[in-house]
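note to self: dont lose this again. the chain is below, predicted strucutre after it. 301 aa total, dont forget to put it in the shared folder this time
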Amino acid sequence: MKTSGDSNDMTTSLKPRSLKQRLSQPGLISAPGVFDMISAKVADGMGFDTLYMTGYGTVASHLGLPDAGLATFSDMVGRVRAIARGTSTPLVADGDTGYGGLLNVDFTIRGYEEAGAAAIQLEDQEFPKKCGHTPGRRVIPMADMVRKIRVACEARSSSDFLIIARTDARTTLGLDEALRRADAYAEAGADIIFVESPESEAEMERICRTIGKPLIANMVEGGRTPVMTGAQLESLGYRIAIFPATGFLAMAAALRSAYGEILAKGSSAEYRGELYPFPDFTRLMGFERVWEFEKRHPETE
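---
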C-alpha cells in the first residue's frame, strides 16, 4: 500500500545525498554562494545540487570585515554548523588556509566535517590570507601545502567528506607554477582541484586539459576570471562552478534600492521594486512549525 510519504521518499532517493555522489554523475554542478541563513534557506529550496559557503560573504555578513584572514576557525565553523543544519543540500565550505599549521588543519578538518559540511576548501596562501580576486596574495612553499593536504585526508573520518585544494599561485607566480602545484596537490590526495583566478578562457582551457581531477571554476562578477556560461564551462571540462559573490552583490543592490526609497520618501508605501512576499518569507523561516506547536501545546489551558 502506498503511504503518504512515498512520493517524498522517492524524490529524496533520486537526489544525490553527497557531493561525492553527485560528482559521479555527469553534468556541471553550479553552486550559488551562501553567506547567512537567509541566503542559505532561499538557495536550499530551489533545487541546487550543492551550496557554496563563501568566505568573503560570510565574513562580511557575520563580522562586517574584509576577507583578509581576520575571521577565526571558531567564527567560521559556527557558520558552517548553522548553515549545514539549517539546509538539506550538500555544503562546500571555505576553510581558508586551515587556520594555521598542520595541527590546526587537522582540527579544522574534524570540525568542519562534524559541523556537517560535505567538503572543505583549503588554499595555499600565506597567513593572513586574502580574497582570491584582490591584490597582494602570497603563497606558501608547495611542499608545505602538500603536507597540509595529506594531514587533511588523514584527519577526515569519511571519504565522502571531500578535500578541495586551491592554489593562488597564478597571480604572483604564473600559470605554469599554478599547474605544477595543482598536479602536486592532486597527487597528495585532494579530491577536487581549484586553480584560482585564471585570467582568460585560454588559461582555463589549459587548466582543464592538464589536471586529471575534478576542477572548480570560480565565477566572480568583476573579478579576474571571465564569467562564462554553464555550457562553456562544461565544454572546457569544469565539474563545479561556484558563484560566491552573486548573492551578496544582488542583496546589497536590492537593499540600497529599498532603503534609498525609505530615505528619500520616508516610507516604503510607494516602493515598486521586487520584495519577497512576507507570508512566503515567514514560511521559509519555519513559522508554520511554531504555529502548529502552539496549537498542540498552548501556554495556558
